[in-house]
């Protein structure tokens, strides 16, 4: 898990909270399992319940969380939608965020999201500059020169500025963080017994809660 001023040891939460599948479902409470976001932040998913992950390709804990994110996506009801938002805590994170938004505009994120984590953490591929990142996406059909140019454009500058605005509104200071419907913030916390399994469980509980509220 990363914080702006502190980088914890990679894999901490995965080691401490490997699996909780055999434990009974818990009724998670505000202030313990999740924090309310006040005021709520408007979502980008229209009438659907938004489940947003704040992440970075430069965050090894986000790589560890990726299978859990996929499991969460698979369990979401049809009235909910999973959304990604890159974080910008460090310069290298900003470079990956720029690449993410260009890839998103090109329709490449579905093909490259897991692959980029694999390239960094499994294959140990050195991806440290805009040129390196563009080279990765070139392997999936992007034009490298155009990709680099777009990453440095005013349009992408605006999106990076928007990240900072949204992080402040959500109260995000670590990754991975889940935000449910712009109202609830969920993070792993060993002191409260919350690992990645529990983050998924809490998010699903809050989606269910939001779904019930929409029916009234």
TrEMBL record:
Its main location: periplasm. Gene3D superfamilies: Glutaredoxin. GO terms for cellular component: periplasmic space. Residues 1-20 form the signal peptide. InterPro entries: DSBA-like_thioredoxin_dom (IPR001853), DsbA/DsbL (IPR023205), Thiol_disulfide_DsbA (IPR050824), Thioredoxin-like_sf (IPR036249), Thioredoxin_domain (IPR013766). Disulfide bonds join 59-62. Keywords: Disulfide bond, Periplasm, Redox-active center, Signal. PROSITE patterns: THIOREDOXIN_2. Residues 14-156 form the Thioredoxin domain. One of its GO terms (molecular function) is oxidoreductase activity. It is found in: Periplasm. Belongs to the thioredoxin family. DsbA subfamily. This is Thiol:disulfide interchange protein. The lineage of its organism: Bacteria, Pseudomonadati, Pseudomonadota, Gammaproteobacteria, Lysobacterales.
């Amino acid at each position: 898990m990363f914080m702006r001023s502190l980088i914890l040891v990679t894999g901490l939460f995965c080691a401490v909270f490997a699996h909780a599948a055999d434990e009974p479902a818990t009724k998670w409470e505000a202030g313990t399992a999740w924090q309310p976001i006040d005021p709520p932040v408007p979502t980008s998913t229209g009438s659907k319940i938004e489940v947003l992950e704040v992440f970075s390709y430069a965050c090894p804990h986000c790589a560890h969380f990726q299978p859990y994110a996929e499991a969460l996506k698979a369990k979401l009801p049809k009235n909910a939608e999973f959304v990604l938002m890159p974080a910008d805590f460090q310069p290298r994170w900003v470079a990956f965020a720029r690449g993410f938004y260009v890839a998103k505009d090109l329709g490449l994120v579905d093909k490259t999201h897991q692959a980029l984590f694999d390239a960094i953490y499994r294959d140990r591929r050195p991806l440290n500059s805009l040129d390196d990142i563009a080279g990765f996406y070139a392997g999936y059909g992007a034009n490298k020169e155009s990709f680099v140019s777009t990453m440095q454009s005013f349009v992408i500058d605006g999106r990076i500025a928007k990240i900072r605005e949204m992080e402040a509104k959500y109260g995000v200071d670590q990754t991975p963080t889940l935000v449910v419907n712009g109202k609830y913030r969920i993070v792993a916390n060993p002191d409260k017994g919350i690992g990645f399994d529990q983050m998924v469980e809490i998010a699903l509980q809050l989606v269910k809660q939001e779904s019930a509220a929409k029916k009234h």
